[in-house]
């Protein structure tokens, strides 16, 4: 009888352990809404493809919202847990008096990611070539447009008076509008900029990223309540991201291009490699998840210059670096 009790005890223990292992083997799901699909976000795709999220026990569901306003709406409506979008959107939400503010907790890109595309191949491009031209811009109040206006003013061009500025085209349709003949110049992300150049539709003549300086152009953010209730998952998420940031920094563009190729249909690995190399060379990819005070101040200066800053928001109000700092200190 004693032997049977021992055997039964062992069997019970085995069943309990098996159940625990089975439960523990199921990864926690985090839903990400990205503002657009771009090679600019290469480290995010690397984190997925290299299995860095999986190593942390996370399963990522990635959707593309196609626009900052749509991305933030998705986050606020609980259609996503984390948004990858420009930090200016968190300021807009805060200014509206939200009782659950959106907090920036990990930075992905640290410069503007757009390029100026000319319809003609301007070998000796100068910024005053834009005067009197038709400029196909980005959404009013969005970071691409504000950074673009900041750069134009820096070169003595008044976007409202020196250009025929078009801003009434939906974000997702801007490339096709330019391809169909609208505008002399357009501001585009990669890989669309390089695709247009390869197809002879337009030519890259300048980088807004090089011209506008460091700023929290695209960050991972979440509602304050989500960060509090899912602290461990967010820490794991940030750890996986940091692994990917270091991997992209320390490996050749060709290796990154091979990894992220599945995310860009009809785009050659050679073109992706060229774009990754361009972004790396101008320091667009953040090499760690810290969003610093200087970048935050530069962001608000650009917003104010564009007349889009609803109110100045202290760095400590909408930026949480404690998670990134803890991950980096391990």
From TrEMBL:
Compartments where found: Periplasm
UniProt entry keywords in alphabetical sequence: Signal
Family annotation (Gene3D superfamilies): Periplasmic binding protein-like II
Organism domain of life: Bacteria
Family named by the database record: Belongs to the bacterial solute-binding protein SsuA/TauA family.
Protein name: ABC transporter substrate-binding protein
Native organism: Sutcliffiella rhizosphaerae
